[in-house]
Amino acid sequence: MKRDFLSTPIEYLKGVGPQKAEVLQAEINVFRYGDLLRFFPFRYIDKSKITSISELNEESAAIQLRGKLSNIRVIGADRGKRLVANLIDKTGVIELLWFKNYQYILKVLKEDAHYTVYGKVNAFMGKLSIAHPEIKLYDPKDDEKGYQMEPVYPLTEKLKSRFMDSKYILSLVKQILQSPEFECLDHIPDSVLKPLNLISRKSALYHMHLPSSEQAALASARRIKFEEMFTLAMRSEKIKSKRWQEMNGFKMTQSGVLLKEFYHNHLSFELTDAQKRVIKEIRTDMRSGHQMNRLLQGDVGSGKTIVALFCMLMCIDNNAQACMMAPTEILATQHYITLKDQVQGLPIKVELLTGSTSKKKRNSILEELKSGDIHILIGTHALIENDVEFQKLGLAVIDEQHRFGVAQRAELWNKYKTKPHVLVMTATPIPRTLAMTIHGELEVSVIDELPKNRKPIRTVQREERYRSEVMEFLKLEILKGRQAYIVYPLIEESGKLNLNDLMNGYDLVCSFFPIPQYQISLMHGKLKPEVKALEMQRFKDGVTQIMISTTVIEVGVNVPNASVMVIEDSNRFGLSQLHQLRGRVGRGAEQSYCILMTKEDLNYPAKRRIQTMCATNNGFDISEVDLELRGPGDVMGTRQSGLPEFKLLDLVKDTEIIDLAKRAAAYIIKNDPTLEKAEHSLLLEYLLAHQDDHFWSRVS
Ligand code: ADP
Ligand code: MG
């Protein structure tokens, strides 16, 4: 059957065999013919272009020359022995060199014959040469071939060491593309391809490897990119549409005694407009009868927690329970303390469940969850253990989502017949369109405003030699009654955490801030949970003025009186981490400061990160720079976020294609939600066949 041609194991291709097949599989994930066709070149060399020798300079990349060969000779002795020939064209002369295995080449090279030469220019003491060039006798017929783009593939060192180079790959690809059996069905319907001027799948695969023109290569890339986004968008649209049709969510229509009571008598500040808007969006979802899956984006300190509390109260008003999951024990504990405090006086029972909850306490919590006595359960991923059963879980809030694996999230609600509403809160905001692309099946809400009482944090860079000034500044702040964090990067060496920097730092800081005049907390991940909790509490209560810590305090920790954040070796941190850390200050009404300690000479990305931090407080702007420096895969943690790895699509740059593909997918699903029309049968088949390719960031 023709369709199966592309599923043929790669080892059956001429020139492969079992051993090379193993290398292809291990190195570039090529198992079948079709995989090889999707192993795309990352650039092309124009082999129809001939460069003049006089145009060459030290910066010339790989180029093609044509000229007469003369003065072929072997020179040097022992290890310096080499074959040299001069290539002469109308404009100049360049030396061609061979150091290895030149006996054979020496035999075939012809003095005074014309050759086409291809290679990379080297400069040695100002003199240009090409070592080990590709060289072939000039054939006037070559001129008639016109456009000749030769693909260059992204090869690994191992492939190269086995002589499996771009030419080799191309020879394999050609066998497949030029076989009469090569056929490939197009799962994107004509109704989409035609109006968007997209070429067929078959043609795109062909011209990616053997482009007949530059336009053909571009059109192929456009088609493949579209396909990557379209497939992703089809899946999201299908999930959304299914969820929408099933009407399987808790319908929470009670407008709520608790909510009103809380709003009027417990809330100590005015909500920002953005918070109000987002609460409304969520309320609409929760009343709709559909299960909500919403992503709440908001910069550090934008007040996401209070939004979550509003939603949980709505849920309790409708006789269901709520839970909130945080990535660390510190954070869960802190949420528990604040929340309990905020709802004091309301008839609500809040409990905390973490890995260090005692067995006895845990058992009683489990009991009360089942009986419905507990209204809100806060915790770490201890919440998703199997025996944690709610009587009626109506809403699950997940805080600081980037720390969680996808699988962990899913378990929360799988066991319930009616799935709870889900609110995922993230503090690593990314541009809205990007968020909607990646989390296509989630609704996205954004808090784009900070509470009014905030003063922007002042951020500066200080080199190590200004340490004593920095410490003096801290003293002044402490004198004013403020507190400070000093954060050290944690170094991981062969799987072990190295606390040396932190401990040395502690000693150094102590030398500036003598005990007992000053009190210092020390915090790191290896401490026992109860010690951590105690240190956190001492700092919160103002017993200690300085908190020396690793990044365990990175997310969510809230001590409004802390006004200085010193980040040691800040050039070693990533942008989003720096921004998160900085977000630990500036939480009260006082002016806050972030001091980025660095060494003196920074490399480009580090310099750019530090400059960005000094220039802006806006998390969305920072994430854009981060995307530019690292690419979306790394920023979102591709695997963790469930984002498929795109071969060609660039989530940041290809916005036009992304938009087209999303609209096309939405249109199809709107008109044919189950894809039962004949024209969509291939599409349906394709989606079903590939549904396990990527692990989804699906929340339900
Ligand atoms: P994040 O969005 O980073 O999780 P939090 O929810 O921890 O931020 O809120 C940070 C601080 O701001 C908390 O102390 C919270 O009580 C306070 N806060 C939240 N909303 C407002 C508001 N509208 N006005 C003033 N303070 C607020
Ligand atoms: Mg938070």
Brief rundown of the structure:
By secondary structure, the protein is an alpha/beta fold. Helix content is 39%, strand content 19%.
Fourth CATH level, the homologous superfamily of the domain at 458-616: P-loop containing nucleotide triphosphate hydrolases
Shape estimate = globular
The largest beta-sheet arranges its strands as 11-12-10-13-14-9-15
What fold name stands as the CATH topology of the domain at 458-616?
Answer: Rossmann fold
Uncertain runs: 694-700
Given helix and strand content, the structural type is: alpha/beta
Major sheet, described briefly? 7 strands, parallel
Mean pLDDT: 87
What is the helix content?
25-40%
Bound molecules: adenosine-5'-diphosphate, magnesium ion
How many β strands by DSSP?
A: 23
As a percent range, the share of strand residues is 15-25%
Rg on CA atoms, Å:
32 Å
- The CATH architecture of the domain at 458-616 can be named as 3-Layer(aba) Sandwich
Task: Report, as a whole number of angstroms, the end-to-end distance.
Answer: 38 Å
- Total of DSSP H or I helical runs spanning 4+ residues: 25
CATH class of the domain at 458-616: Alpha Beta
Your description of this structure?
The structure is a single chain. Among the domains are: 1-48 and 157-183, no CATH class; 49-145, Nucleic acid-binding proteins (OB fold (Dihydrolipoamide Acetyltransferase, E2P), Beta Barrel), CATH 2.40.50.140; 257-287 and 303-426, P-loop containing nucleotide triphosphate hydrolases (Rossmann fold, 3-Layer(aba) Sandwich), CATH 3.40.50.300; 458-616, Rossmann fold. Helix 7 packs across helix 8, helix 10 (273-287) runs parallel beside helix 11 (304-317) and helix 20 (604-615) runs antiparallel to helix 21 (619-630). The strands form five sheets. A seven-stranded parallel β-sheet has the order 11-12-10-13-14-9-15, sandwiched between helices. Strands 16-23-22-17-21-20 form a six-stranded parallel β-sheet, sandwiched between helices. A five-stranded mixed β-barrel has the order 2-3-4-6-5. Helices cover 39% and strands 19% of the residues. The radius of gyration is 32 Å and the shape is globular. The protein contains 25 helices and 23 strands. With 700 residues, the protein is an alpha/beta fold.
